[in-house]
Amino acid sequence: MKPWTIAGEAVSPDGTKLELISHDGEYVIKADGLPLMSTRMHYSELELARFACSKLKVGARVMIGGLGLGYTLGAALELLPKQGTALQVELVPEVIEWNLGPLASFANRPLNDERTELVQGDVTKIIRKSKNEFDAIMLDVDNGPSALVNERNSWLYTDLGLQAIKGALKNGGKVAIWSADDEPKFVIKMKRNGLRATKHFVRAHNKKGGIRHVIFTGQKN
Q1: Full-model pTM
Q2: The CATH number of the domain covering residues in 40-220
Q3: How far is CA 203 from CA 22, 35, 180, 181, in A?
């Protein structure tokens, strides 16, 4: 049996240790030893883009918070209409390097697409300063509203954070938020902050059985 090997290491601004590990062609990103995402199980990352980016208009502008393994960005680019652009925001520079290196081919090299605008920085800062700018926002920056790896992300799931997300969306724009587990009260919180919200249970694999994740979606009226 081939051993797991460390292909890359990084430390996020809050001190979380990130590792890119590989085994027989598969890659996994871990945070403080816990698996965050895998090239073998990424169907819910594709669905995140599909929920947010359906029926976009010509010239649509979308934002993805959290690069991960690049699958959500790749799926969003496939759904972008003519003259559309995708702003990809990633906090950790090494994650960007991994996506330009060993991970690049898994999602068809989305960072090299001319429609991609890459920002290395904090997505919360971009959301705070954006007003009526995006047709869709996709957030995969943590394990969910309460299962946080990075505490700085907690603001996104507060009333103030959801109001800022709504403000960053154009009228009719959609937000999709990835979560490892269900958060029964989060849809209520989204609705309370002016978003038409629902949740979707999606599988990590595109097949029956196995792990299920949750995608919360909201639309600005």
Answers
A1: 0.93
A2: 3.40.50.150
A3: 22, 16, 10, 11
